[in-house]
């Protein structure tokens, strides 16, 4: 188990997270007094990514020009004095 004080953890976060990703635990300390532990997720708890790119293709119809304002400029209250 690795041990790190807060400042050390902040400066080397990516290295500590890589260690956790590989199964190690990190004990987080404040002035050398442990107060938290970073542990890897168990594989049973982690949900697999089931995202399918393009699954919503063709489900939306755009009936206007998205580059133009939705209301006329003269009706915008924020432009009036």
Brief synopsis:
A hairpin with a 2-residue loop joins strand 2 and strand 3.
Distance between the amino and carboxyl termini: 64 Å
> What is the second-level CATH architecture of the domain at 1-42?
3-Layer(aba) Sandwich
Say what the CATH topology of the domain at 1-42 is: YefM-like fold
- The structural class is alpha+beta
How helix-rich are the residues, as a percent range?
10-25%
* CATH superfamily grouping of the domain at 1-42: YefM-like domain
Topology, number of strands? 3
Supply the CATH class of the domain at 1-42. Answer: Alpha Beta
Tell me, rounded to a whole number, the average pLDDT: 87
The geometry reads as elongated
The side-by-side strand order for the widest beta sheet comes to 1-2-3
What summary fits the major beta sheet? 3 strands, mixed
Low-confidence stretches: none
Rg from C-alpha positions?
Answer: 25 Å
DSSP helical segment count:
2
Percent of residues in beta strands? 15-25%
H/E element order: EHHEE
SSE topology sketch:
Layout: E1 2-5, H1 6-11, H2 13-21, E2 26-30, E3 33-38
Parallel strand pairs: 1-2
Antiparallel strand pairs: 2-3
């Amino acid at each position: 188990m690795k041990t790190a004080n807060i400042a050390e953890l902040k400066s080397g976060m990516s290295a500590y997270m890589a260690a956790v990703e590989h199964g190690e635990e990190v004990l987080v300390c404040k002035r050398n007094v442990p107060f938290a532990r970073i542990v890897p997720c168990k594989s049973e708890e982690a949900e697999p990514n089931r995202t399918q790119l393009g699954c919503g293709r063709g489900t939306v119809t755009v009936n206007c020009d998205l580059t133009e304002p939705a209301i006329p400029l003269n009706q915008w209250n924020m432009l009036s004095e």
